[in-house]
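Q: Please design a sequence for this.
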């Protein structure tokens, strides 16, 4: 078991928290990190590119000229792919690019990403983040106090005040523990966990 410091929003150390090395101290596996990030990026592709084949292009129902006797090549429709304005051969059609690695691989990637944050000393555990009203300025003051710019905040549950207070701050994202993912962990420089969310994350990854 590793021990991480727990701070309040005034940057005072208030406690120490034991975390499971199977989640926060595992070896970094770059292969699974790559595979899962590729999965997430592929799932975001729209895949809406579409072209029309010869049967879908408007017009061309009549044979342009008779089969024999004109001296020209045979033609059955003006919408042949060989003609200007004709259909497209083997063009793109709407499709999904998504794929899903095994569940063990996805869990291993999350564990590697969390362990990487601990190894790089870019993880911060907060006892709590008390805010009675929506105040972007107050939220920004806490960020400046810890000298963090690109940060991912993970809460243990719904927190509308905190979510709305951080919404207009550039390079800051707020999410709940069940939504934590590899892409966002690697995208943001710092990971900020509310203390209650740590056990939820451990429970989900060790189950």
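A: Design:
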């Amino acid at each position: 078991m590793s021990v991480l410091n727990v701070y309040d929003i005034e940057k005072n150390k208030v406690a120490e928290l034991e975390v499971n090395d199977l989640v926060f101290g595992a070896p970094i596996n770059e292969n699974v990190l790559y595979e899962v990030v590729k999965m997430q990026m592929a799932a975001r592709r729209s895949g809406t590119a579409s072209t029309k084949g010869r049967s879908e292009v408007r017009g061309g129902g009549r044979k342009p000229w008779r089969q024999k006797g004109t001296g020209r090549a045979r033609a059955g429709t003006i919408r042949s792919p060989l003609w200007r304005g004709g259909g497209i051969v083997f063009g793109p059609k709407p499709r999904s690019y998504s794929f899903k690695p095994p569940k063990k691989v996805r869990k291993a990637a999350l564990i590697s990403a969390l362990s990487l944050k601990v190894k790089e000393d870019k993880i911060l555990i907060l006892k709590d983040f008390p805010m009675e009203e929506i105040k972007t300025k107050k939220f920004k003051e806490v960020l400046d106090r810890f000298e963090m710019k690109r940060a991912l905040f993970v809460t243990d549950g719904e927190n509308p005040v905190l979510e709305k207070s951080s919404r207009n701050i550039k390079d800051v994202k707020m999410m709940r523990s069940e939504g934590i993912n590899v892409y966002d962990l690697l995208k943001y420089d710092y990971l900020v966990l509310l203390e209650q969310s740590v056990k939820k994350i451990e429970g989900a990854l060790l189950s």
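Q: Thanks. Anything notable?
A: DSSP finds seven helices and six strands in the chain. Residues 2-46+100-206 form a domain with the Ribosomal Protein L4; Chain: A; fold (CATH 3.40.1370.10).
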